[in-house]
């Protein structure tokens, strides 16, 4: 198993997911252990000296001027976890909770948060033993960090809250009793270090970086299959065109689709047809899919800067210098989360247009509604209703959460990012676009059937045959729910992308592959 050194190595989104899924092991090095202990020592010096430092011997938020007696500093840290655990709604996915813990361990291991080594080690114990806190979806405004979600995440450290354990939701106290373990005794500043930070937002971003990359690859492959099915032209994918407007995403999409289609007998069969131009939903695939890829590149850069940063408050430089700042504010990632949501939604919008186009009939070289006998049969007509409905739903979800701000904490926190909402919406839109693409997959495969016995390239034929192993060609109306579920499973699994890579080898990858294929 590969290992990742917390606090030292650069954490990529794919590595964070690997730790969460048990394919990568996160470890603490001796150097990092020393850094954590040194930082905790600075906090003890501050407490012993009686120097007033926010969050160590003061109250929180609007209570920052209220001094706390040295004897009560430990109780103060437990109280902040209990009082701030006010999230509501259904729990987030277990994997997201686990990602939150991984991101927090990495941040604390930088050695600027003043936490005890035993606290960090207990969080790692939760990760490694798959005893994962239950965290409600709603309640963070993404400003002073993700206060409510992080409070729920770390209540189990002090024996409170709930955890996923052996497939069930259990009270933490019961699990600790069963395992004969005691709660952690938090030291000064630790509660604040645990709940200040952007790990709720960032965890959603981490998963979105990986899932969006999978989705973009699927979108390119399914669009390629649709181009073949509808007698589309390969000219819009010529490198000569894209060298004149060389955005990384555009160039990659164009060259990848060109590679996938080059040498197709289906393309050759209509090379000299009378159609001068394809509709935008096919002709502008490099520009639209490419724009989403350009957005992903920026989004990935921002998220990975965030998950390798220290985002709690105050920051402990040494016993003489503590800085109370605003690195917990979610704005730097809230805006890209909203931007990524729009970029994903656009992949669904153009996919819906290609689904609609596939139903028009003879001008595309396929029967109307993608079925030879219509009238008695409605064919694929209503599938486009589904894509239209989901595309419309996505448009509503694209309203940027980061455009809003509601003051909190008696005005002390008077501008907030709402990035937690941005992150939740992004994953919802990704899931929705997977569904739209699964419908396009059905239509594209059906359209290609009508070109038999002409063959496409080896990779396109392999994709089509793989789809047909799971989903039949349809000659008459039948219940579609099982078929839709099978198509969605193909899209979500990523196996079409892996098949394309295995079949085409290096010939599959477009120009600039190094920017897009490490996730």
TrEMBL record:
Annotated compartments: Cytoplasm
Which branch of life, at top level? Bacteria
Q: In which pathway does it act?
A: Amino-acid degradation; L-histidine degradation into L-glutamate; N-formimidoyl-L-glutamate from L-histidine: step 1/3
Chief location of this protein within or outside the cell: cytoplasm
Q: Which SUPFAM superfamilies does the protein's record reference?
A: L-aspartase-like
Q: Which GO terms describe its cellular component?
A: cytoplasm
Q: Cite the PANTHER family for this sequence.
A: HISTIDINE AMMONIA-LYASE (PTHR10362)
What is the official name of this protein in its record? Histidine ammonia-lyase
């Amino acid at each position: 198993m590969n290992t990742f050194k917390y606090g030292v190595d650069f954490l990529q989104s794919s590595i964070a997911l690997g730790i969460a899924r048990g394919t990568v092991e996160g470890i603490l090095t001796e150097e990092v252990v020393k850094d954590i202990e040194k930082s905790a020592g600075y906090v003890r010096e501050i407490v012993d000296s009686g120097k007033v430092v926010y969050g160590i011997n003061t109250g929180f938020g609007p209570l920052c001027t209220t001094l706390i007696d040295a004897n009560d500093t430990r109780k103060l840290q437990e109280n902040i976890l209990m009082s701030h655990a006010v999230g509501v709604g259904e729990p987030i996915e277990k994997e997201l909770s686990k990602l939150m813990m991984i991101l927090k361990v990495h941040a604390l291991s930088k050695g600027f948060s003043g936490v005890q080594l035993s606290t960090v080690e207990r969080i790692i114990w939760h990760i490694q033993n798959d005893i994962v806190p239950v965290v409600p979806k709603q309640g963070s405004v993404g400003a002073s960090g993700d206060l409510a979600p992080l409070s729920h995440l770390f209540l189990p450290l002090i024996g409170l809250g709930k955890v996923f354990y052996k497939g069930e939701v259990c009270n933490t106290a019961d699990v600790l009793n069963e395992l004969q373990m005691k709660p952690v005794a938090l030291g000064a500043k630790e509660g604040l270090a645990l709940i200040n930070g952007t790990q709720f937002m960032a965890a959603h971003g981490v998963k979105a970086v990986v899932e969006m990359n999978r989705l973009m690859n699927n979108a390119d492959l399914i669009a390629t299959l649709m181009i073949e099915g509808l007698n589309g032209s390969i000219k819009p994918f010529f490198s000569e065109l894209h060298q004149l407007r060389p955005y990384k995403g555009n160039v990659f999409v164009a060259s990848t689709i060109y590679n996938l289609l080059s040498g197709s007998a289906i393309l050759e069969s209509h090379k000299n047809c009378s159609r001068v131009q394809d509709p935008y939903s096919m002709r502008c695939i490099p520009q639209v899919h490419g724009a989403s890829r350009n957005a992903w590149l920026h989004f990935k850069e921002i998220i990975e800067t965030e998950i390798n940063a220290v985002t709690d408050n105050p920051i402990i430089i040494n016993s003489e210098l503590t800085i109370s700042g605003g690195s917990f504010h979610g704005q730097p990632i809230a805006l890209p989360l909203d931007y990524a949501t729009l970029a994903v939604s656009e992949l669904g919008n153009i996919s819906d247009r290609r689904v609609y186009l596939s139903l028009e009939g003879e001008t595309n070289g396929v029967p109307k509604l993608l079925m030879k006998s219509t009238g008695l049969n409605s064919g694929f007509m209503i599938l486009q209703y589904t894509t239209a409905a989901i595309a419309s739903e996505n448009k509503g979800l694209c309203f940027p959460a980061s455009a809003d701000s509601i003051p909190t904490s008696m005005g002390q926190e008077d501008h907030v990012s709402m990035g937690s909402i941005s992150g939740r919406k992004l994953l919802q839109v990704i899931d929705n676009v997977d569904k739209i693409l699964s419908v396009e997959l059905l239509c594209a495969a059906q359209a290609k059937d009508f070109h038999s016995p002409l063959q496409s390239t080896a990779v396109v034929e392999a994709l089509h045959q793989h789809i047909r192993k799971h989903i039949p060609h349809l000659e008459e109306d039948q219940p579609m729910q099982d078929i839709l579920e099978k198509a969605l499973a193909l899209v979500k699994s990523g196996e079409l992308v892996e098949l394309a890579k295995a079949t085409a080898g290096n010939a599959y990858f477009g120009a600039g592959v190094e920017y897009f294929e490490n996730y």
